[in-house]
Amino acid sequence: MKGKNLKRIRKNAVVACIMAATITFSTADALGVSAEDAVSDGNALVEAPATVIDETDAAPTVNPEETDAAAADNPAQVAPVGNEGTTPGEASNDSEGQQSEDTQVGDGQNDSGEAQVTPAAPNELRLSGTAENSPVYDGQSHDVQVKLPVSTIKLEENDISAVVASDESGNTFYITGIPDNKVSVSAVNVSETAFDVAMTGCSVYNSELVQVTAPASLKITAENVIQKRPVTLKSMNLVKAYDGKPITNGDMPLAEESGWVEGQGADYSFTGSRTAVGASINEFIATPRPGTDFNNYRITYIFGDISVVERTNAQKYIITVEGNSNAVKYSGKEQSLSGYVLEGRSDSEFKINGTGDPSQVITVTIGDAEFSVTGISAYASGKNAGTYPVVITGSPVVRDADGNDVTNEFRFEFKQGEFTIEKRKVILTSASLKKKYNNKMIKAHEVTVSGDGFAEGEGASYKVTGKQKKIGQSYNYFTYELNEGTLLENYDIETVPGVLEVTKAGDTAINETPKESSGSSGDTKSSDDTSQSSGSTAPSQTQAGTADSSQQAQGAGSATLARATTAQNANVLGAKRGLVTVDIASPENVGKTGKDVLGARRASTDDDTNMEGHLFIFAAALLTAVMTIKRDKRLKK
Known about the structure:
637 residues, mainly beta, five-stranded mixed sheet, five-stranded antiparallel sheet, 4 helices, 39 strands, 7% helix
């Protein structure tokens, strides 16, 4: 009976400690053999269950399993992959060469009739470690020591440091026999954090400190086995004067690019841009080149500045705003002129007309940039003749294509325009009349207005003083007085008297009308002046002045030659009218040569004789009389 029990002890030593902590038993009692027999058989007796103490947060250290004195020279081993089934301390002289079927959980009975239970072996064990002396990534493979977490367990009253691991279900296991509680792993890239380490020479205990079969390898997770390599990427600082176009890095390289492993690197695309005055960052995006893993690098991005500065005075765009200029005739009403010419200079050559409305948006192109200009006003108005400045007012505002206010990048020069209201040219011509002598006074009171004429609602009244009775010629003089509201400053008035002529009764009158005009009179008794008024019926303006009531055309012999125009095409004194001229001395020669010009008149308006002839005859007669008297006196003596 004893020999049979010794054989069972040898085969089932690994399951000897599966009893609960509250069930303590003696191997000798359970098997019915002495302790000396058990020791001599070479199998360690495991103390039932030990207490875990001094669990540390730091990476723990693993100590070998404590065994009794009989097994000290033969520590338990965790079989490598392919040797599963060999239990620690199992005798090599087992005649069957493998674990007996009666070691399975629930298989067989002890001497008391109780079932024997084999502790479950984990499929895998995993834990997290801490890498020591991690190298910086350089593209090469490196072996790195990983320190494993440990806890202190008590085996046979001895405190042992064991590596703490767990299975896939989260059950805790303890591993002893790992040198210094460290393992060596091999890695190239920073992303390599999971490793399989073969387990040899190790013992594994479950949470009840019952030794179990170790898996082939230990799955270890460790961060930073390879450290990231530092790389610095810095973009350029860019600056330029404002020109309305965006500034970008373009094809310019980085200001600094350092840290890449040889043969590795990145391509860069720049996204930073700036158009308006101010500063922003020269941002860029890095894209890894083939064979480059950004996870292996700790990249520091430094963005330079993109700055757009204001143009200096010498660099500013120059825009000249000149008010429009124009001239109009006086109309008697308020007149106005608006608008301007916006013209670029220097490197901004352009010429654009503006309406003068400050809300008008004018588009200006300078190089490749487009701007809009608003806020400029130009206006002038007036009523009376004169010159009025077209003044530029308002505050110009310039915006770029993005709507940014860039007025400070421009310098404006303003020039006034001129709005001129010119005087109206008015020609006042009294009528001309020619009749045969009939011993009656002739008059012509009609005054004709020509040239630009008077503005609507304005005009003048006239007083005609010319008359002729005797044979001869005289001017049909007249005066005028401007109506109320008609200002002399708005007119340039020229007076032209007509010609009154009385011919001999037997002469043929030139330009004689068959009938007398309504303004003529044959009344020889009246020599009074008559008046005539002309003008429009439009509303009058405030009168600035009136013509001199004594203003008359100069008489014959004057250096100024006046023309006479009538509805009957009367001839003009002292001036050639086509091929027809009038010679006061020889009216019969009119129309023959076309070269005769009227000179001074030979008689007054009240006499039809030649004054010089009369005086000559009178003087001759007087002289003859005097001489006759003297002769008679001498004869009497």
